[in-house]
Design goal:
This protein has 26 helices and 12 strands. By secondary structure, it is mostly helical. Among the domains are: about 210 residues, no CATH class; about 100 residues, no CATH class. The strands form 5 sheets. A 3-stranded parallel sheet has the order 5-11-12. It starts with a helix and ends in a 10-residue tail after the last helix. The relative contact order is 0.08. Keywords: Copper, Metal-binding.
Length: about 700
């Protein structure tokens, strides 16, 4: 059915043309003020103000019909644009006719018996409304919505649902308009109409109308909340179903079309907000609140379809392992999420101004969700996002499990120290690796992958809390809240109070705006940083994670992850009081990697080396430097200047330099043989072999 959606736009234009011709004949003499005109921007008509110059009105008509009945691609159109579409109507119909047969075959394959029943129904020449009778849930929903059922209601329902922008009531209103255009089944060819209608009705009953029998997963305003029926469980993009992926992309596109997406970028770009968000003790907490607000916004856009949506995390720890095992070569070939969100090859060159920055040196990707991007609430639509060359960029060791574990679980550290370790290693390395707009400290939320990257960072915060806070801190009392493992304040220059404590308010505002129009998406969230320490204790906004692979292993075993605990101990930890979903490592590569870690740990014990994790990290850095296609490199000077880290060297590059100059050599005896046994390459420098 998804393949068909591209062609529905043709029908949309045809409908508009018919409306236009009908209304123009009524009153050519009416002034522009009599029609609810819109500002014209390129090929897009967005519902807005009447043109100030009446002479600029190309078309005149009487009062426009309900504009929501002509909603298309998330934007509202008027008769003015549809009049223009009439010129291309005949060509569009001809093009559509050639596509119908192919799409009909696809739909018949997808819908099976439902299609056959609908097809037979068509040949029996029964009334179209009879198609609804086998679906009592749907008829109940129609009655509950107080919507009268026109004689040819299904085509309106079909037309509206396919657009994913109209509610059922709006679809019924659109149906009335369709009746005035044609007596045939909608604007869709008969040979594809009935199979498609069967698919839509089945989909509607299962995913939409059935929601009438279950508790509403969101609050009364459709924005916030959670319940047992719709818990917030964030999963890796790789574990999302095709339907979940399509829903997430659909929500991103709607948020861009409606101007909400760019407003979240404005929060991140605001100077005061950004000063709290980066390089401080509240880096993790600030972004946790930011992500929940963004998630709430996406959930509100198209209920009930988007009501249970959660942010997917980018499992680059697992993808990095695929790279080590040479299952793939570049970050794009290793990461399904990068490909599914448009990749880096379908692009144009653009000098569009995005938040005060231009990126003429980067490819501006206009595939998938990126084609919907508008930098300034629909006033400046570049229709593309600047991205680095993902198709030729390699993973670096800073997102390997060894480095991630050392950043999240250093020995005896406070939350402030862990926050810094995560931000200045894993976090910065991914921003640098993805490049393009992700390399910008202020406007990186332009990139949709930003939200999945930071969801991964939030997952690492969750792992820290599980391993360092929960075993030692029971309940959030006054004394426990002051425990440096739970929260630790810091000074922040040029902020309202000069610093933050656990009682400080989370500061978020849209850049350049006095009144934050997004605050409704943050309603009900803790207002202070101290209330954001545990993702499962956020009231109606509480959420958990579905973890698997290496990050799941780190969550369950903490410091002992990959160190060869007895099997019975591992099983006990796996089943003791979990709030999150943890799946065991199932891949052969994951088990091989853990086998390597256990072998190194065993040898370190025999040599009385205490910090075996450090030795593993050094051995893996040598693998990246001498066995894999990429190089272990530092951040670029431009990246360092943007992020204010001019004196900082990327962790893995610093470690490689220390190995090379002899200041921190690998202490594990015969370490190259261990690498060779598990990965097929020793990792020694060429002159050391």
């Amino acid at each position: 059915m998804a393949a068909y959606l591209n062609d529905v736009d043709d029908a949309d234009d045809a409908a508009g043309a018919a409306f236009s011709s009908e209304s123009e004949s009524e009153s050519d003499a009416d002034s522009c003020d009599d029609c609810d005109f819109a500002d014209y921007d390129g090929d897009v008509m967005s519902h807005g103000a009447v043109p100030s110059d009446k002479a600029s009105c190309s078309y005149k008509s009487r009062k426009c019909p309900n504009p929501r009945a002509l909603k298309r691609n998330g934007r509202v159109h008027t008769l003015c644009e549809y009049h223009r579409a009439r010129q291309n109507e005949h060509q569009r119909k001809s093009d559509r006719k050639h596509k119908d047969t192919k799409h009909a075959r696809q739909l018949m394959k997808q819908c099976g018996e439902s299609n056959n029943a609908a097809h037979n129904h068509h040949h029996n020449h029964a009334d179209v409304t009879d198609d609804i009778k086998p679906y009592p849930i749907m008829t109940t929903h129609i009655a509950a919505s107080n919507a009268s059922l026109p004689s040819n209601a299904p085509e309106g329902v079909l037309y509206g649902i396919l657009h994913k922008d109209l509610s059922f009531r709006e679809a019924m209103e659109l149906n009335e308009a369709l009746r005035a255009v044609t007596a045939s089944p909608g604007l869709i060819s008969v040979k594809i109409y009935y199979p498609l209608l069967a698919c839509v009705l089945v989909w509607y009953c299962v995913t939409v109308a059935s929601s009438q029998d279950t508790p509403d997963p969101t609050s009364s305003d459709g924005i916030n909340g959670t319940s047992v029926a719709c818990p917030r469980i964030r999963k890796a993009w790789d574990r999302q179903t095709d339907v979940e992926k399509a829903t997430y992309i659909h929500a991103l596109q709607l948020s861009m079309d409606q101007g909400l997406y760019s407003k979240f970028m404005s929060i991140h770009q605001d100077a005061v907000s950004n000063r709290q968000a980066h390089g401080t003790c509240v880096f993790l907490f600030w972004h946790r609140q930011f992500l929940v607000g963004f998630e709430n916004m996406l959930r509100s856009l198209d209920p009930p379809r988007t009501s249970c949506l959660t942010l997917p995390y980018y499992d680059y720890v697992q993808h990095n392992l695929d790279y080590v095992n040479q299952r793939c070569t570049t970050i794009e070939s290793c990461s399904p999420i990068l490909r599914d969100l448009g990749g880096s090859t379908q692009a144009i060159r653009s000098t569009a101004n995005i938040g005060g920055y231009t990126y003429p040196q980067f490819a501006c990707v206009n595939a998938s969700v990126a084609s919907h991007f508008c930098a300034d609430s629909q006033r400046s639509c570049s229709g593309c996002i600047p991205r680095g060359p993902w198709h030729s960029t390699f993973f670096n060791p800073d997102v390997n499990f060894n480095r991630v574990k050392r950043a999240v679980l250093p020995t005896g550290s406070s939350i402030a120290a862990v926050t810094s370790a995560i931000e200045f290693s894993v976090h910065n390395s991914v921003h640098s690796m993805l490049s393009g707009v992700m390399g910008n400290l202020f406007i990186s939320p332009v990139e949709p992958v930003f939200y999945s990257h930071h969801t991964t960072i939030d997952l690492l915060h969750t792992i820290y809390h599980r391993c360092r806070v929960q075993p030692f801190v029971t309940g959030l009392t006054e004394s426990s809240a002051s425990d440096p493992r739970v929260f630790q304040g810091c000074s922040i220059p040029q902020t309202p109070n000069g610093g933050v404590t656990r009682n400080s308010s989370v500061f978020m505002q849209e850049s350049g705006l006095r009144n934050n129009s997004l605050m409704r998406f943050f309603d009900g969230l803790p207002t202070t940083y101290g209330g954001l320490t545990d993702s499962t204790q956020l009231g109606q906004h509480s959420y958990s994670y579905d973890m698997g692979g290496l990050v799941g292993d780190l969550y369950t075993k903490c410091d002992a992850a990959g160190l060869g605990l007895p099997e019975v101990e591992e099983r006990r930890r796996l089943t003791s009081g979990m709030r999150h979903v943890v799946r065991p490592i199932a891949s052969a590569d994951g088990n091989t990697f853990l086998g390597w870690r256990r072998a190194v740990f065993k040898r370190a014990q025999a040599q009385r080396i205490e910090d075996s994790d450090r030795e593993m990290e050094k051995m893996m850095v040598m693998m990246y430097a001498n066995c894999l296609p990429g190089n272990v490199t530092d951040y670029s000077p431009e990246f360092k200047a943007m992020w204010g880290i001019e004196g900082v060297v990327a962790p893995s590059k610093r470690l490689l330099d220390a190995i090379q100059d002899g200041s921190d050599t690998i202490k594990i005896s015969n370490w190259t043989a261990l690498n060779q046994r598990y990965f097929g390459c020793g990792g020694a420098f060429p002159n050391d072999k």
